[in-house]
Amino acid sequence: MKYLDEYRNPEIARQLLDKIRETVTKPWVIMEICGGQTNSIIKNGIDQLLPKEIELVHGPGCPVCVTPLEMIDQAISIAQRQNVIFTSFGDMLRVPGTEKDLLQVKSEGGDIRMVYSPLEALKMARENPDKEVVFFAIGFETTAPGNAMALFQAAREGLNNFSEVVSHVLVPPAMQALLSSPDNRVQAYLAAGHVCTVMGYNEYFPIAEKYKVPITPTGFEPVDILQGILSVVKQLEKGEYTVDNQYARAVSADGNPAAQKIINEVYEICDRKWRGIGEIPRSGMCIKEKYAAYDASKKFNVSHIKAEEPQECISGLILQGLKKPPECPVFGKSCTPEHPLGATMVSGEGACAAYYRYQRFADALKK
């Protein structure tokens, strides 16, 4: 398949690994932002093939993983109510709240439905005028255009029985928050290619300059990732810090103006709490006042619900690149994909789930 098979070519991958080995002379810590990149790295053993000087750490690039516990509890509160059809992408259904998850609500009689698009939820609102249809709108800038379009279309049609629980987050503020931390270890970023298809990469230049870190928007196949690593290692070795677009087949500097337009029509920038990290100023998107009638948190009055993270889960440290999943004392023991304690284990893009799925836990279980 064009633009896919060639980026899985083992010979090209070997050549890139050779170039990385020839280039690197010092130890460097590189963070991949996206959970999809994390899964590709672990699945293909890229971290094990790199020279010992290069350490890859896993960033907060999984929207399920960073959705705060209180948002899960708010969603559950709404989903338990009579006359509500609660819709969500599948991976959110198993993320544990304080006492239960959405699948348990479904088993108790709640009308919980998995959808692949917010427009499916919008269709349900049309077909069920006597029901309140709520969609759990989570994600980075990647899913924001579709979720914003659903609200825009609901308003245009006057579908007053449709609303969204919104927990959108923005990548650049999180990158800056990690770099500003006194515990920061990150020296370069592989930026999330799919986010950049929407937003472009112009907003990364000030970050690269301010914090002296090279940033490379990168795809998700092995060759993509190795090209991205080579790009940032070359810069690090030369003392250069700029943005180098590896994912040129999908990403332009300005991104997708049409997608940005619909986002800006419906959502506005707000402070946002990230699971395991805490509140990051201006790192989220909230529904604008003109669309407030479609804000499920306000419609069902659940904004007051707060929650504290479980102490035994170290997902916050993992999302900040300070720990690896096998360093967690409950990893692979009381915390597994079947019985997850945190979102990094339940999500298909979570670092803990990737380590577990690809058998990177044997040493941890011996401890």
Brief sketch in words of this structure:
The protein has helices at 10-23, 35-43, 46-49, 63-66, 69-79, 102-107, 118-127, 144-157, 171-180, 193-199, 205-211, 222-238, 257-266, 296-299, 315-319, 343-346, 351-357, 362-366; strands at 28-32, 54-58, 84-88, 111-114, 132-139, 162-169, 188-192, 215-218, 267-274, 278-287. The protein has 18 helices and ten strands.
- The radius of gyration computed from the alpha-carbon positions, rounded to a whole number of angstroms, is 21 Å
State the CATH topology: Rossmann fold
Tell me about the biggest sheet?
A: 6 strands, mixed
Count of DSSP helices? 18
For the record, the CATH class is Alpha Beta
Overall form? globular
Distance between the termini: 44 Å
The CATH architecture term is: 3-Layer(aba) Sandwich
Counted up, domains total 1
Provide the succession of SSEs: HEHHEHHEHEHEHEHEHHEHHEEHHHHH
What is the number of beta strands?
Answer: 10
Question: Could you list some keywords that capture this structure?
Answer:
367 residues, alpha/beta, Rossmann fold, 6-stranded mixed β-sheet, 4-stranded parallel β-sheet, 18 helices, 40% helix
